[in-house]
Design brief:
Layout (H helix, E strand, L loop, with lengths): L1 H14 L4 H11 L9 H12 L7 H21 L2 H22 L2 H18 L3 H14 L9 H6 L2 H28 L5 H15 L6 H22 L3 H19 L5 H21 L6 H23 L1 H9 L1
């Protein structure tokens, strides 16, 4: 945990700023701006921190510490091993920190730390605790609602999941054309049509979304590697459970690809879940010397995703030139 706090401080020093949403929405909301409404759980968290006297400048720092601490506890429960937990926590802290600093994903990051905790309880057959933590996650960010369909998703056999994921990828790549065709067929001015147009317009305005296709395909590679090796690699039950959540999040990320903003947030979750899956799975696939090499590659791959995904190197260089 001390390493994670050090990493957070390092990223804060490099970035020297918070994400757009944190600056324009969350911190003003914390300071009393009521022009925007947020989920009840997040609103309650703000109220508690504000009541005990946490200043607005520290609000994002406190929430990121809560997020990484919950993630650490969840992974420790899943692995029962401190070495694995430390490596996974190192990767997760890096990705979560990037999300806070560049995506302003405060609500979603803390929400999905509760999802990780829910998975840990589920792996131990603590159904009530698992359900309660899912509800807490939903109260913090409504995107966690997708995991209510997890019982149905887990009942599907491998071939059905493979077909659904493959179709969702095809839909993602052709979504702008498909949604454009649907939009033309809808009555002009309808509520549904207006929401689609708004999603398209927002994606066009955000420069980050212009290169999103590369980030999506980058993650897709690792999802489909898993699908081809699924019946051979997964012997760890906790890892298998994490993978179920990752694949479901990927389906929603693909379906929402045309919106970019919603899709990229689910894609973040996919990568958060794939990190512990890969690290937990290699114990049963490779001998000890091979595991070290593969582990190093996994860390590099997902750290590289964090770097590519948020373009912090270019901003750092630009600031000092």
């Amino acid at each position: 945990m001390a390493i994670n706090i050090t990493l957070i401080g390092l990223y804060l020093g490099i970035a020297n700023r918070w994400g757009y949403d944190s600056i324009h929405y969350y911190i003003p909301f914390y300071e009393g701006d009521t022009s925007r409404k947020f989920e009840p759980g997040f609103t309650l968290l703000v109220y508690i921190l504000r009541t005990i006297g946490i200043p607005s400048e520290l609000f994002p720092v406190i929430t990121i510490l809560i997020t990484t601490w919950l993630s650490f506890i969840a992974i420790l429960k899943l692995t029962n091993e401190y070495v694995q937990t430390t490596i996974i926590a190192f990767c997760l802290t890096s990705m979560i920190s990037f999300m806070y600093l560049y995506m302003g994903g405060m609500r979603q990051a803390i929400s999905f730390s509760f999802i990780l905790l829910s998975i840990a309880y589920q792996s131990r057959n603590a159904s009530i605790k698992s359900f309660i933590t899912i509800i807490i996650a939903i109260s913090l960010h409504f995107s966690a609602l997708i995991f209510l369909v997890m019982p149905i998703w887990r009942r599907l056999d491998f071939h059905k999941k493979y077909i659904i994921i493959l179709l969702s990828l095809i839909f993602a790549l052709a979504s702008e054309y498909i949604v454009g065709f649907v939009l033309k067929a809808l009555p002009p001015g309808s509520v549904f049509a207006n929401k689609i147009i708004r999603a398209f317009e927002y994606s066009d305005r955000n420069n980050e979304h212009a290169i999103y296709i590369y980030k999506f395909l980058y993650s897709s590679i690792f999802v489909f590697i898993l699908l081809f090796l699924l019946d051979k690699t997964i012997k760890n039950k906790s890892a298998s459970l994490i993978l179920e959540y990752a694949l479901l999040a990927y389906v929603f990320s693909a379906i929402l690809f045309f919106t970019k903003e919603s899709s990229i947030r689910y894609l973040f979750v996919v990568n958060v879940f794939l990190i512990p899956f890969y690290i937990m799975s290699i114990e049963h696939v490779f001998v000890k010397t091979q595991r070290r090499v593969i582990l190093l590659l996994i860390v590099i791959i997902f750290m590289l995703y964090g770097v590519i995904s948020h373009n912090w190197l270019s901003e750092l260089v630009t600031r000092f030139i």
